[in-house]
């Protein structure tokens, strides 16, 4: 069963997350289909890609497939893991990717949306950053993409509370490009994609990569990097992380003890 569907209309493509039974959880299988779709669209020189869930979705994506989060001391969000690979694929895709967001965006799915170039969302859209809900040692590039998109006080609120934030708040902060009613957002986004596809693709590709290089241009002393990694190792090896996963599996609130 395909977990993702792809429609092409000339130089524009629409990729739809299509696993509503599991709320489009970002499983290795779904991410695999997504990355292959982007690779194919790169070969076909697509000039704009819309990434969405089924029209009217209550949940855009429930984030990382929690059932696939490793419980061993392995880093659950390692550089070569599917979700990180997908985020880089989006950032490195030579044409603009427009996230068309309806419903709830959870956890790692927020990073996927923020890795897109533009975000159009319906008024019901919400965004939740959830590592503290599961006891997960969040990854450094994920944190960096959040503070690049939002004021650090808002990132702290989202991480510490793990509560969904309404799209209006993110729009006011400039993290979301447009809020568009559900009955118009597809036409609105298609029009945007057509405008982009009619512009100079080489210029757009070069500017997209230049903006990424400039955004990444941040020095980090090796000792700082090692401290960041050690902080994550401590969390990843904690009982709280295992409790977070266990509680999710048992569909009960987690009881975190701080160790
Ligand atoms: C596996 C799922 C999931 C799911 N994985 O429907 O950012 S980090 O660090 O936290 C990162 C590690 C991360 O992204 O972690 C995941 C963060 N995501 C969440 O915490 C959201 C978890 N899901 C939910 O809270 C609910 O499913 C929402 C509110 C998204 C939708 O609620 P709703 O009542 O509509 P269900 O909860 O009944 O989910 C339907 C089915 O999808 C599974 C869930 O276990 C259920 O499976 P069964 O039908 O087999 O019971 N599911 C949902 N999310 N992230 N599986």
Key terms:
single chain, 259 residues, alpha/beta, 2-enoyl-CoA Hydratase, Chain A, domain 1, six-stranded mixed sheet, four-stranded mixed sheet, globular, binds ligand LCV
Structural class: alpha/beta
- Gyration radius, to the nearest Å? 18 Å
Question: What are the distinct ligands in this entry?
Answer: ligand LCV
CATH topology term of the domain at 4-183: 2-enoyl-CoA Hydratase, Chain A, domain 1
- How are strands sequenced across the largest beta sheet? 1-2-3-5-7-10
Strand content: 15-25%
Query: What is the end-to-end distance?
Result: 41 Å
Instruction: Give a quick account of the main beta sheet: strands, pairing sense, barrel closure.
Output: 6 strands, mixed
Number of helices: 11
Instruction: Compute the average pLDDT.
Output: 93
Helix content: 40-55%
**Low-confidence segments:** none
Total strand segments: 10
H/E series: EEHEEHEEHEEHHHEHEHHHH
CATH architecture of the domain at 4-183: Alpha-Beta Complex
- CATH class annotation of the domain at 4-183: Alpha Beta
What is the CATH superfamily classification of the domain at 4-183? Answer: 2-enoyl-CoA Hydratase, Chain A, domain 1
Shape designation? globular
């Amino acid at each position: 069963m395909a977990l993702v569907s792809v429609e092409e209309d000339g130089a524009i493509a629409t990729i739809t997350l299509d696993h509503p039974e599991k709320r489009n959880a970002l499983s290795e299988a779904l991410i695999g289909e997504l990355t292959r779709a982007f690779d194919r669209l790169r070969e076909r020189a697509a000039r704009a890609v819309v990434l969405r869930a089924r029209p009217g979705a209550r949940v855009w994506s429930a984030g990382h497939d929690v059932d696939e989060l490793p419980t061993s001391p392995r880093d659950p969000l390692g550089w070569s893991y599917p979700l990180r690979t997908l985020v880089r694929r989006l950032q490195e895709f030579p044409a603009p990717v427009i996230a068309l967001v309806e419903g709830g965006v959870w956890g790692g799915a927020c990073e996927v949306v923020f890795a897109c170039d533009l975000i159009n969302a319906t008024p019901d859209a919400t965004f939740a950053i959830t590592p503290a809900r599961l006891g997960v040692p969040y990854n450094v590039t994920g944190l960096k993409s959040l503070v690049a998109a939002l004021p650090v006080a808002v990132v702290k609120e989202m991480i510490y509370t793990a509560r969904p934030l309404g799209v209006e708040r993110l729009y006011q902060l400039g993290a979301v490009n447009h809020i568009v009613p559900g009955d118009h957002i597809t036409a609105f986004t298609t029009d945007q994609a057509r405008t982009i596809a009619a512009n100079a693709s080489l210029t757009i590709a070069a500017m997209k990569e230049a903006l990424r290089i400039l955004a990444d241009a941040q020095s980090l002393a090796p000792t700082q990097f090692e401290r960041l990694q050690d902080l994550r190792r401590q969390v990843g090896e904690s009982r709280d992380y295992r409790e977070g996963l266990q509680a999710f599996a048992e569909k009960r609130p987690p009881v975190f003890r701080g160790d």
